[in-house]
Amino acid sequence: MSLTRKLVLGLAASILLNVFLIGLWAGRFMKTARAPAPESTEIDTAPIRGVWRKRDAVLRPRGEAVAAARRSVRAALVAEPFDPTALESALAGLRTESDAAQIALHHALVDAAKELGPDDRRRLAESHWILGRGPRRRPMDRGVE
Fold first, then answer.
1. Each residue of 112-124: pLDDT tens digit?
2. Residues 13 and 47 in one domain
3. In this structure, what are the phi and psi dihedrals at residue 135, rounded to the nearest 5 degrees?
4. pTM surpassing 0.70?
5. Distance separating alpha carbons of residues 33 and 28, to the nearest angstrom
6. What's the number of domains the chain is made of?
7. Rounded to whole angstroms, what are the CA distances from 92 to 69, 74, 103?
8. Do both 25 and 5 map to the same domain?
9. What is the mean pLDDT of residues 51-67?
10. DSSP label at 38?
């Protein structure tokens, strides 16, 4: 094998190794650069998990209806030609579904609170769910922390 060929193969191997190592480094950097998830403890989430578990049959369909209404809003926004009436209708549907989901959740919270003791109600009152820091909210949507 000629010297030129050996140098080309060595250079190619070096480039591949460097690209691999840079990829690993970038992956680690991207992993640590993400914003940390809001802190959540067993004490903080235990009462609300009980609410969801016991009332899943009522709450899940409400959540799915809200998701479907959001998809309708998105479809109306990107439709060509754009139809403002269709968007208004989709937004009205989203309001209706959101209100129904809130009502179902509020009923579930009242029912759950009846079953909880004072300490669990206090933990629920201090939880991320009640203070407006639920799991799907972006940091800019959160209230005072």
1. 888 888 888 888 7
2. no
3. -70, -25
4. no
5. 8
6. 2
7. 9, 13, 17
8. yes
9. 83
10. P
